[in-house]
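INFO batch 0412 | record 1 of 1 | parsing
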Amino acid sequence: MDKCNANGGMMYRNIPQHENGLAVTVGDAEDDYSEELPQLGELFKFRNGCCSTKLIKKRLPILTWLPNYNRQYLVEDIVAGLTVGLTVIPQGIAYAVVAGLEPQYGLYSAFMGCFVYFVFGSCKDITIGPTAIMSLMVQIHVANLGPPFAMLSAFLAGCIILILGLLNLGFLVQFISMPVTAGFTSAAAITIASGQVKSLLGLPGKSNEFLDSWENVIHNIQQTKLWDSLLGIGTIVVLLLMMQLKNLDGSWKTFGKYISLSRNAIVVIGGTVLAYCLSTDGVAPFQLTGNVTSGLPPVQLPPFSAVVHNQTYSFTDMVSELGTSVIALPLIAILESIAIAKAFSKGKSIDATQEMIALGLCNIVGSFFSSMPVTGSFTRSAVNNSSGVRTPAGGITTGIIVLLALGLLAGTFFYIPKTVLAAVIIAAMFFMVEFHAAAEIWRTKKIDIIPFFVTLITCLLLGLEYGMVIGIGVNMCFVLYQTSRPTIRHYIERVGNVDMLVVVPDQSLVYSSAEYLKARVVKLSQQNPVELVVIDGYAVNYIDSTVAKILAGIIEDLKIQERPVLFWNWQRAVQHTAFRLDAELFVPRFKSGSSLDEIAKCWSLDNRIEA
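INFO prediction complete | emitting tokens
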């Protein structure tokens, strides 16, 4: 076989050639480009030696860092753990209120994750516990159904996260783009803050959805309580001022830093003392949190059945009530936790699989201690980092502080004003609304502002879960449109005595782009009377069976126009896909050469090739 019949340097030994170079029989040439079955084991990365020392240390990070633990780290870890503990106590109580649960459930959710992450966690800065977004997503389903549904949510979320981690399926969260994430986070922050306005002003009502919350505020605005409003708004102002103390210089720098980090605990303690001092016969001028059950939570299996309002719910009934949150909660938890790990990695690689395993176990174990779903908290992780934590051992101190609060301080929580808790939440939400992200998206790629606002608006109007799904759907539509409309360049070149139309797609081709490619090639061929059409596939790394079939259709359609088609610079794997469809048709048409001169010479020698 001569040079013109060589295909990318490969010789197809069992394809007899006529004098005109056209293959007429395939024989057993399929063996040269047959496709192996997909290796699903590679997808899930199942490995032998699952009990190797290396893997055990990878899955139990404590075995790596604990033997090298330096005593000098102990003080820093204790200080950081104490600071985070003082932050998580008021936040935990507040987030339980957001979730529609009694205050103690926020503390039940705040300690076990610390202990489990101490063993399985790989990032020293992350603290696992209740967060605003997880609380809001739980509230949608459990506010009227009670704690059992929150505990079951934690268990199911943990199981799903653990399974996804073991199967290395964490890449699924990569389908949630930055504009969608920013829109979701901003909507969640606005919804949470809106739901706390009633407590800030001392209004009645229980609504936590965005529209319902403002409808409730407008309807009951005449019932605004003066002292609750003054204390709540004053607390927000104090929190924002205390946050600025971290910017002090000189000898006050350390003092300002720790006052800023402890601001939530300080205002809650101050509000509690104020309410206690102003109480007369147990009646305070503010709405109070009320009784908080003291003591540790019972250790028991997560509830797989429940009785609510004299109605018995089986396991399937409970799962049905939880609805789409069974899937949404794990994905959001993974997204939050991995994002935090990346933010504090400081250039180090993140083992996403291990983080998912740790997070899944935190939720599973926590559900045995009456926990609601938990994930990494950006606020508390930032506090942990700023406090100088050196290892995950800081979480032990945080967990102990929460347990001491449950055992010794639960009685004092009675006097915490609701308006102070609302102020703590609202102040935190100010910095979760990602105005900077919207500006960044607009500056970088203006069309990406569409999924941002679609996610933001639908989350506010329809709920977080539906808004997230719609946002992802809109974003995927953009991606699908891009894949279905590849840029197709073309130019006319005369080489020797041959006029060529060279068509150049700029990306890999999948089924959604197949008809578009065919229409463009046929139209360009009609508009440009040439002797030869060359499709340059240098940028095409992949085609599927639909595209292969369409390429055959292009050959047949141009045959009617009496225009032959050659495929130039296509990668070997892509060629093989076409050969498996019809080797007799495609093998003589795929050419490789350093220039169009070689293609022209080959075609000139064989200008009788069947078009």
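INFO post-check: The CA atoms of residues 225 and 588 lie 85 Å apart.
INFO record closed
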